[in-house]
């Protein structure tokens, strides 16, 4: 069933290139996207004159353009001596407007009204939201400016870059030709790396790009996929299942269980591996079913859309079906359009990931929250110093 949604073995996904033993050991069929990210970063990142390790925050998100709801959205963070640089990979859940600059289809763009409806940006930016998305809030908490789209003309990459593309997936075959797939996003990261070296000089660029010893990841589990307005609208058993497409939600739960096993394996494979894991499934399910507890009035229907639950993806009237309805106040809603949540959900979840504070529902962030991954300063041990050598068996993660 996973294969039907675009997953394949890591060797196939990488175009026949061989992976090294460590990545093969960590891979399982249901979680090739994790191995793909780790493997690609190791192959593509360039190690400087001394060993350095990228601090990674990989956000796995399901809130993406259907049917690519298993496409990963990834976030890569690297601390520097003076602050942090924030590099983001993913799909529509974190795209800040890269798809404004490519030839694509209306379903993969959000640079038209009513996107950006709350006025924070004064105009539609290409974010699939009524305002900001989760990485905008994380950047704010990390004391960084908004991270620019990679394709934005004259973008300043000193504080990072956002490579995400609405509709993108881990594999090039996902919406091929009309999105920026993950392998291409990682190639674009190399372009930024070279740009920073040219602008800042090699030594200063390395400060922006690397911090010795950090191997830090954040993983976001899948939400109840079947409760997206688009999938509610497609559910042939809506009257029996209360609206949610349970088969899709069960797939998400199976994925989440497998993810926990992979994280345990990665702890054994990579020295110093630290991660933030969050139960996004329970977190969002609680807000869908009990919206009033969290400041919402509507947890089922989309603010912008058409048909049952607002689940027909017509927001903005740029697609084949032109009709769409728009709610009066998006802050009352969990869902902005048929697939994507409102800014208010993005902000609440960003705070939960950042602070890692206990929630009233069964939701956890741990063993580290994002704040600790960004800002914790760690003491070097003798073992760290001994291990700090330029031998080729050291990899950037």
Structural commentary:
With 397 residues, the protein is of the alpha/beta class. 32% of the residues lie in helices and 11% in strands. It is built from 13 helices and 11 strands. It has helices at residues 10-13, 21-26, 32-44, 134-141, 182-200, 202-209, 229-234, 238-241, 246-269, 280-289, 343-355, 370-375, 382-387; strands spanning 56-57, 74-79, 84-89, 160-162, 215-220, 273-278, 298-302, 304-305, 325-326, 333-335, 365-367. The strands form 4 sheets. A 4-stranded mixed β-sheet has the order 1-2-3-4. The protein has a 3-stranded mixed β-sheet with strand order 5-6-11, with helices on one face. Strands 7-10 form a two-stranded parallel ribbon. Helix 5 crosses helix 6. The longest helix has 24 residues, at 246-269. The chain is globular and about 60 Å long. It starts with 9 loop residues before the first helix and ends in a 10-residue tail after the last helix. Residues 1-76 and 379-397 have low confidence and may be disordered. It holds the Pfam family Lipase_GDSL. This is GDSL esterase/lipase 5-like. It comes from Acer negundo (Box elder).
Q: What does the secondary structure layout of this molecule look like, with pairings?
A:
Elements: H1 10-13, H2 21-26, H3 32-44, E1 56-57, E2 74-79, E3 84-89, H4 134-141, E4 160-162, H5 182-200, H6 202-209, E5 215-220, H7 229-234, H8 238-241, H9 246-269, E6 273-278, H10 280-289, E7 298-302, E8 304-305, E9 325-326, E10 333-335, H11 343-355, E11 365-367, H12 370-375, H13 382-387
Family: Belongs to the 'GDSL' lipolytic enzyme family.
GO molecular function: lipase activity
Keywords: Signal
């Amino acid at each position: 069933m996973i294969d039907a949604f675009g997953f394949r073995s890591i060797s196939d996904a990488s175009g026949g290139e061989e992976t090294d033993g460590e990545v093969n050991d960590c891979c399982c069929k249901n979680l090739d996207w994790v191995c793909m990210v780790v493997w690609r970063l190791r192959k593509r990142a360039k190690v400087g004159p001394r060993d350095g390790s990228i601090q990674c925050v990989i956000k796995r998100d399901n809130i993406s353009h259907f049917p690519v709801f298993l496409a990963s959205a990834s976030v890569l963070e690297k601390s520097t001596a003076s602050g942090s640089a924030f590099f983001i990979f993913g799909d529509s859940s974190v795209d800040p407007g890269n798809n404004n600059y490519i030839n694509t289809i209306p379903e993969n763009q959000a640079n038209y009204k009513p996107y950006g409806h709350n006025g924070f940006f004064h105009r539609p930016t290409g974010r699939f939201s009524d305002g900001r998305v989760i990485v905008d809030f994380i950047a704010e908490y990390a004391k960084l400016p908004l991270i620019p789209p990679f394709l934005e003309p004259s973008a300043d990459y000193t504080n990072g870059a956002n490579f995400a593309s609405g509709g993108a997936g881990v594999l090039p075959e996902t919406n091929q030709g009309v999105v920026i797939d993950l392998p291409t996003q990682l190639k674009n990261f190399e372009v930024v790396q070279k740009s920073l070296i040219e602008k800042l000089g090699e030594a200063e660029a390395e400060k922006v790009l690397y911090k010795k010893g950090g191997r830090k990841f954040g993983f976001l589990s899948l939400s109840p996929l079947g409760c997206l307005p688009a999938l509610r609208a497609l559910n042939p058993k809506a009257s029996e299942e209360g609206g949610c497409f349970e088969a899709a939600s069960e797939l998400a739960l199976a994925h989440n269980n497998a993810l926990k096993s992979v994280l345990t394996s990665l702890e054994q494979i990579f020295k110093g591996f630290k991660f933030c894991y969050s139960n996004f499934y329970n977190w969002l399910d609680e807000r869908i079913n009990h919206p009033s507890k969290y400041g919402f009035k509507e947890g089922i229907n989309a603010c912008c859309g058409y048909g049952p639950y607002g689940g027909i993806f017509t927001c903005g009237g740029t697609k084949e079906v032109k009709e769409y309805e728009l709610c009066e106040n998006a802050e009352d809603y969990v869902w902005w359009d048929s697939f994507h949540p409102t800014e208010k959900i993005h902000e609440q979840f960003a705070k939960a990931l950042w602070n890692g504070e206990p929630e009233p529902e069964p939701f956890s962030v741990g063993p580290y929250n994002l704040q600790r991954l960004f800002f914790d300063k760690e003491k070097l041990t003798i073992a760290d110093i001994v291990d700090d050598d330029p031998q080729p068996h050291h990899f950037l993660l």
